[in-house]
Amino acid sequence: MMCSSTLCFGPLATVFLACGVVAAPRKQEFLLDIPRVREVELRSNMTLRTGLHAYVLIDKPKWEIEDWKMKNYTANIPYEWVDFYTNNLDDAGKKPHLYKLKEAAVHYQRKGANPRYMQLRLSSKGWKEIRKAMLPKPLPDIFWD
Prior knowledge:
Blueprint: E1 7-9, E2 36-37, H1 39-44, H2 46-49, E3 55-57, H3 70-76, E4 81-89, E5 97-100, H4 101-109, E6 117-121, H5 124-130
Parallel strand pairs: 2-3
Antiparallel strand pairs: 1-3, 4-5, 4-6
């Protein structure tokens, strides 16, 4: 998840579970508390530094990757898988389409009345590629990588 002046870190994973025939809830009922920390707090928080927990670093420099457009991602990591939702995430019962990023981008950029959403399944290979655009390099001694 990327925001204008913040970047969220942590493990990236998608898990799908199926237990019999159960109707999916229409709205998300749970909240995930993701701490917002400054560099000085991150340096002293060994739990966050393991890379196993999500956090938002709030006092980082602006990185080149924050100005990337879709074409930058499709040029650098076209092979990554994407969960593509043609009608956003409004209905929990609707499942995503699975595409490679390059193909999903075509669908995402099409004009239409419905909002769209896609979630990138970023692999280790893809992460190593896009982190090259994270200049200046973030806190090399504490940045989980």
